[in-house]
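for ur thesis appendix - LacI family DNA-binding transcriptional regulator. copy paste whatever u need, i formatted it the way the template wanted (i think)
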Amino acid sequence: MTKKTGPARPNLSAVAAHAGVSTATASKVVNGRPDVAEDTRERVETAITALGYRGPSRTTTAHTVELMVDTLDTTYASQILRGVVLAAEELGLEVVVGRVRRRSANGVPESSAAWAQRLAAAERVGAIVLTSGLGPDVYASLARARVPLVVIDPLDVTEEGVVSVGSTNWLGGRSAAEHLVRLGHRHLAVVAGPAESLSAVARLDGFLTYCRQQDVEIEPELVRPIRFDHDQAVQVAERWFQRSDPPTAIFAGSDAQAMGVLEAARRAGLRVPEDVSLVAYDDTPLASWANPPLTAVRQPLEEIGRRALLTVQQLHEGRPVDSHHIEIATTFVVRDSTAPPRAEPLRDTRG
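the 3d part is after this line
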């Protein structure tokens, strides 16, 4: 009996021929080497996509997960990393940390196809990407390379089938509004996260929805989507505090933003919470270290990191996931930065 075979699987020589380069050059691109001209790299990556090249099949003894982040110098990222590392220790895995937009020695950014092929060549268990916008080309490249992927708090809409992990952001935003409105605040402001961030949009929507339900109207000028950034929050809050009717309470979409609001209040000679109440989001150590300690929506950041690692391993083993978007519940922590509004409005101290 003659064994039936399907179409021949494209090999590296076919990729090289299609791109018009040597097999050695094609191999450099597949393995993420930086010493390849950019136009040559693009031709090889186009050939990889056109031919559906997936690299050699092999028995893997992968023991490493790659955690990709935009920035490493935040308490948010460090809490996530702690959860990932502790879960990896439980499973006997190693964690490699790198930047999402990795660059070569000559400053050329790594393409999505090169990144996917590099991960595949290194036989990673999978990749975890923290709070970053990837785009459909990256998802497609990783799928072709058969690299399991989990995204934490994605900034963009993920492709169908991509697994993401986060918290119950909508309910978290709602809990912040409920706390402030029940204290008696009606003149509210929101330093929201980036408009392109799914989690930031959910937090803002939860906050505004509760306010509408309670007939609390928020002026459009008092809702500002900005980066999760301290300095931008200072600038926004300073402008609000210069108004003749500054807000009596502010909800910040991250701890870093809340620290910026605190700084703006200090510069304006305002006291928290006597003159203005403040609610933060994330509840990293920054929130409890602040003066005064911040009332905050607590994200279970370590648990999010842990769940992401366990899910990558689950995907690597070929086991199905229960949901492609995993949400872990937030909690609300009341500290010293919120109180009922002042009985009399703040006096305009400008000029």
